[in-house]
What we know:
single chain; about 40% helix; small monomeric GTPase
Amino acid sequence: ALTVRFLTRRFIGEYGDMECIYSHNLTVDGREILFHIWDVPNSQEQSEEGSSEEKRIQWADSFVLVYSICDRASFNILPLKIQFIKAAKEGQSQEKVPIVIVGNKRDLHHRRVVSSEEGRLLALSLDCGFYEVS
């Protein structure tokens, strides 16, 4: 849903649970930036071999990991995923890999099970950026 919103500026309530690669041009500070986004639903990623996940990690330059503030399990898997990404990417070079944690569904505050503070503390402890969005 976040990828579709970023690419089209529209919200789509129903979307598929499939892996897709998107390309998108965006002007940032007067420079044309080409984004390639490999959007992988978590449910599919968990069922695949580790080599497929490692292939995605090697392909990417940065990462946005999204969890639902209404789903504790989606939050709880983040530390392991981030450690896996850092081991694969930073083990090869001295450069820090850009990772952002995004808590989604902020508008559903009445169903919240993961606090904003928990998200911020996790991001701080793992040296990642942090945002909450709706």
